[in-house]
Amino acid sequence: MRGRLPTHPKYRRLSKADAAVLFVDHQSGLMNLVRDFTPDSFKNNVLALADVATTFELPTILTTSYEDGPNGPMMPELVERFPAAPYIPRPGQINAWDNADFVKAVKETGRRQLLLAGVVTDVCVAFPALSAIEAGYEVFAVVDASGTFDDVTQRAAWARMAEAGVQLVNWFAVACELQRDWRDDGQGLARILADHLPVYRNLLTSHGAPRRSAPKKQLEPV
Fold first, then answer.
1. Does 176 participate in catalysis according to the annotation?
2. Fold topology of 22-202
3. Which residues contact 10 (CB under 8 A, 6 or more apart)?
């Protein structure tokens, strides 16, 4: 008797009309715990995701954990980028999904696709990601805008989330999947890539350089 072929979930693309972005605990104190990315690279990735959210006009929620203690305040750049976004300072809940105000803010977006990033990956990202999956949301963990202690912890967190149905993505893939077609106002996407990927800025600079014809060879006098 032949065994059944494994079934795979249908590919559902990220949609500008159905996605929201959740920044969880990108706080000044907790950022010091991130060791799976360099500080400059990690900050760049977080702000790239923020620029994706603003460019595609995605509802965005900021939340912090015990910010009056050693965890510290939210990254000021995120607060500046989203002055009108819901800001949920959790008094003690480690899992953001245990905070009623946070869950209420998520529900009020009306979105079912949640792009989630945070510090640290194995706790501040994994816990609410698993909770949101259980609540029936599609969850996309933005892995390069989330950081933790080391590569071993990182991989264990990724495996745990993926097994539960969380999709692992990076900010570049998120931006391209939301864009879908360069002909649909691709200047916004190009600006994000140029601002956060030096190699892409080089590509644009090369593309925009004036095309010069080769100089004509001078005839030598006879």
1. no
2. Rossmann fold (3.40.50)
3. none
